[in-house]
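Hi everyone, sorry if this is the wrong subforum. Our group has a chain we'd like a structural model of before ordering constructs, and none of us has done structure prediction before. Sequence below.
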Amino acid sequence: MIQVFNEPPSGLQAAPHEPRILAAGHQIGLREVEFTHVSDKAELMLALLRGLALPGAFGHNWDALYDVLTDPGRTPPRLALLLRDYAGFRRRHPHLGRDLEAVLLDAQRHAAQQGRALWLLVEEPDSDPEAW
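Answer:
Right subforum, don't worry. Here is the predicted structure as tokens:
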């Protein structure tokens, strides 16, 4: 398997084994978002707030999330989001998952245009890229 951090970010990607250690070794900031207990948009926004260590003033909406992810003053130039139990979340909440993916992928494209990198890494016990 190609080491994910040796290539530019490309959509949602399976997380490598030991993503925290690899990210640190490549000088990439890593934030983890846990989706296991997310059941609606409000809980999703709280999971993102916690995982991204956002201030309480975070707007709890898609535009605010996009703004945070594309703001060079708030995120490191090389950032990986580790999306934990994401496939399960997508199966439970397909519409919410599609909305979130649209924001994440738009932010990834915008980051690339700025010369920045935003990896979107899916961590699952039995990762199945087809499930995304």
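For your construct planning: Residues 24-125 form a domain with the Barnase; Chain D fold (CATH 3.30.370.10). Residues 31 and 81 are 5 Å apart (CA to CA).
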